[in-house]
Amino acid sequence: MNQIQLSDNIYYVGVNDRHTDKFENHIELPNGVSYNSYLIVDTQVALIDPVEANFLEEYLFKVKSVLQGRKVDYLVINHDEPDHSSTVAAVIREWPEVQVVGNAKTFAPLEAFYGPIANKKVVAEGETLSLGTHTLQFFMVPMVHWPESMVTYEQHSQIVFSNDAFGGFGTLNGGIFDDQVNLAFYEDEMRRYYANIVGKMAMQALKAIEKLGGLEIKMIAPSHGLVWRSNPAWVIEKYTQWSKHESEEGVVIVYGSMHGNTARMAEIVARGAAEAGIKEVKVYDVARTEVSFILSDIWKYKGVILGACAHYANMFPNMTLLVHELNEFKPKNKCYGLFGGMSWSGGGVKTLAKYAEEGQWNLAAESVEVKGAPIREEDWDKLYNLGKAVAISCLSGK
Ligand code: FEO
Questions:
Q1: Which atom, in ligand 1's list, is nearest to the CA of 197?
Q2: Are 147 and 78 in contact (CB under 8 A)?
Q3: Are 246 and 237 in contact (CB under 8 A)?
Q4: Tens-binned pLDDT, residue by residue, of the chain (398 aa)
Q5: Which residue owns the Cα nearest ligand 1 atom 1?
Q6: Number of domains the chain is built from
Q7: Pocket around ligand 1: residues whose beta carbon is below 6 Å from it?
Q8: Do residues 190 and 246 touch, judged by C-beta distance below 8 A?
């Protein structure tokens, strides 16, 4: 059988999820996701991060086909979230003497999910565990993605098993390594993963990157997405850039419109942004594009212009999730603009302004509220100038 090796006696035994519609039941997965797991076969055998429970049969088949009758001695849990840990109990049933390796924060949540674990091995920051030729070393990276998150560094091969850090959406379609695929696709899916999973903890992600900076790293093997063997520096640089909130030149315009009038306003705003010299202008209908895609583009680009029509005295309901996520994830160094329509009531722009105040958004221009449709020249000018002002602010780096 063709086994996938990262290095001598280190195997990829992960699976692809092409069934789940939504990651964590709220983030769309049009391209699926992989749950990566790794097996180190030495004097002792270590399995690093299992997979999601729906893939148990395929997973155990892969592990056993490498092991050829040997047993697993250590099961390393870098992170408790069930997309990785929900096969823990099954792995223990399969190899009852296995020692489950985690840190001081790992086991309370793990046992709350899956019940008591008999053979626990608690490791501390920098502690090592010899498997024979290979030696595992553990580094804590709290909040990347949960408090117990850690990474495992294998000293002999110089591979970092980074769990969620440096991960991304998208199944591995035959190509497992970064040098076997078209990176542009995976970059987009990595940024969407970052913006919606890791971005809220950008500071902690930076600390984790700093910590790993002291290691010789030949390969980064996350628990989702590609294994970075040809150019791990590339993915470290991307993560650093996103964690430092470094934006690219571009404007994301998102509108919520019930009868098409605020959508017409968005077109005018977009003209203003484009004519000011912005080549990357993205326009999204918040009722049609799921928030994770929009948040990913907002993380990438500097300008953000939000438009909402009124809905009773509030704003178009689908916009609420996006602005909530913006104030939760707090992408920094942005320039914002607000617009929207009113009919018998206002409320769209007023509600957006409330979120702007709460989130301390940097507004590049006065907000624009239009009565009815944008058919009057003064309204057209205001909307056009709003797009232009945000664009100029982006171009000037303010
Ligand atoms: Fe992939 Fe936070 O779990």
A1: 2
A2: no
A3: no
A4: 679 999 999 999 999 999 999 999 999 999 999 999 999 999 999 999 999 999 999 999 999 999 999 999 999 999 999 999 999 999 999 999 999 999 999 999 999 999 999 999 999 999 999 999 999 999 999 988 899 999 999 999 999 999 999 999 999 999 999 999 999 889 999 999 999 999 988 888 888 888 888 899 999 999 999 999 999 999 999 999 999 999 999 999 999 999 999 999 999 999 999 999 999 999 999 999 999 999 999 999 999 999 999 999 999 999 999 999 999 999 999 999 999 999 988 999 999 999 999 999 999 999 999 999 999 999 999 999 999 999 999 998 76
A5: 164
A6: 2
A7: 79, 81, 83-84, 145, 164, 223-224
A8: no
- With contact defined as beta carbons under 8 Å apart, do 61 and 86 qualify? no
Helix (H) or strand (E) holding 203: helix 202-212
Gap between the Cα atoms of 202 and 208, Å rounded = 10
Could you list the residue range(s) of the whole structural domain that residue 392 is in? Answer: 251-396
Q: What is the CATH number of the domain that holds 361?
A: 3.40.50.360
Quote the CA–CA distance of 363 and 12 in Å, as a whole number. Answer: 48
Closest residue CA from atom 3 of ligand 1: 81
CA of 378 to the centre of ligand 1 (A): 50
**C-alpha 264 to ligand 1 mean position (Å):** 40
Q: Which residue has the tokens 């077109």?
A: 267
CATH number where 13 lies? 3.60.15.10
| CA 149 to ligand 1: nearest atom | 2
- Give distance in angstroms: CA of 354 to centre of ligand 1: 32
The residues pairing with 35 across neighbouring beta strands, listed in sequence order, are 15
Element (H, E) at 130: strand 128-130
Domain match, 155 and 286 both: no
Ligand 1 centroid to 91 CA: how many Å? 19
Among the three residues 217, 243, 269, which one is the final residue of a domain in this structure? 243
The ligand 1 atom at the shortest distance from the C-alpha of residue 145 is: 2
Q: What are phi and psi of 13, to 5 degrees?
A: -130, 30
Please state the φ and ψ torsions of residue 342, each to the nearest 5 degrees: -135, 150
**pTM for the model:** 0.94
Q: Are residues 275 and 185 in the same domain?
A: no
Residue 253: enclosing H or E segment and its boundaries?
A: strand 248-256
End-to-end CA distance of the chain: 57
Where b means 16+ CB within 10 Å and e means fewer, 366-379 reads: ebbbbeeebeeeeb
